[in-house]
Every structure is written in structure tokens, then in C-alpha cells.
Write a structure and sequence with these properties.
With 154 residues, the chain is mainly α. 50% of the residues lie in helices and 8% in strands. The strands form two sheets. Strands 1-2 form a two-stranded antiparallel ribbon.
Length: 154
């Protein structure tokens, strides 16, 4: 599967892997698989990370870069990641007036309770940075929120 990767991807993977090779012995703790994949601009869910061999505790398993290449290739090909357009369609469901806005409280509720849940303390900085201010009725435009949130997703 690693044969599907371009030379540029192989170099990027080796570089990212080397950052998480803390001991300099050519291995990375499987605890950092998700972090390394995210450093490579992928957005794996916790379930995907667990499925590809990520561990919840440090020092349970060490992997080599040759073992990590197929993991990267597999996650890169994953079509379940969702795109900007997918997220727009979902938020349009909450646009009761069909004017490009939704209730700020509803967005907050969605992010706190659906999918991989966030804690309120994790969510507050994201909303602060990505959301335009609420209007007097508590509505925000959701497209600018998604543009800021998804700006690095390809």
C-alpha cells in the first residue's frame, strides 16, 4: 500500500515520523500515531486511530517508519473524513430561515454532543476563533465558521 504514495508523500511521512521518534532509534510509540497523522494534514477520528494500531497508553507498542507508511496511505485514502461541502450540507439543516445563519447555541450543542464529543473547555477556543459574533437574536453565519475551521483540509 505504501507503493501508492508519491515520493513527496514518502519524504513528508519520514520527516513527520522522525519528529515523533523521540529516542532517535527509528521507532515511534504507537501512542503518537494520531498526532503524526494529524501533523501530515489528515483528520483521523479516534476510532480510525484505534483501528490502524494507535494505542491509548505510552510504551505499549513501538512501530517503525516502514510500518507507518501503509497506515498513512490507508488513512489518506479514507473517504469518510468529510469535506467542507459535507459540513455545509449538515449545517444547512439547522438554517431555519435559509439565510446562511444558525443559532450559536445550536452549533455549540452539536459540537458538544454529536460524533466525537468535545468538552466545553476544548470547544470554547475553537468557537471564539472561528465564529463571527452573534447577532442580537443569537444567530451566526455558519459558512465563515466552516471556512476557518476547514481551511487546511484538502
Amino acid at each position: 500500500m505504501a507503493a501508492d504514495l508519491s515520493a513527496r508523500d514518502v519524504e513528508r511521512v519520514k520527516f513527520a515520523f522522525s519528529i515523533y521518534d523521540f529516542e532517535g532509534n527509528g521507532t515511534m510509540d504507537a501512542f503518537y500515531i494520531g498526532d503524526c497523522l494529524r501533523a501530515l494534514n489528515l483528520n483521523p477520528t479516534l476510532a480510525v486511530i484505534e483501528k490502524v494500531g494507535g494505542k491509548e497508553k505510552k510504551k505499549e507498542k513501538m512501530i517503525k517508519v516502514d510500518d507507518f507508511m501503509p497506515i498513512f496511505a490507508q488513512v489518506k485514502k479514507d473517504k469518510d473524513a468529510g469535506s467542507f461541502e459535507d459540513f455545509m450540507e449538515v449545517l444547512k439543516l439547522y438554517d431555519k430561515s435559509e439565510n446562511g445563519t444558525m443559532m450559536y447555541a445550536e452549533l455549540e450543542h452539536i459540537l458538544l454532543s454529536l460524533g466525537e464529543r468535545l468538552e466545553k473547555t476544548e470547544l470554547e477556543p475553537i468557537l471564539k476563533e472561528c465564529c463571527d459574533p452573534e447577532d442580537e437574536d443569537g444567530f451566526i453565519p455558519y459558512e465563515p465558521f466552516l471556512v476557518k475551521l476547514c481551511k487546511d483540509i484538502k
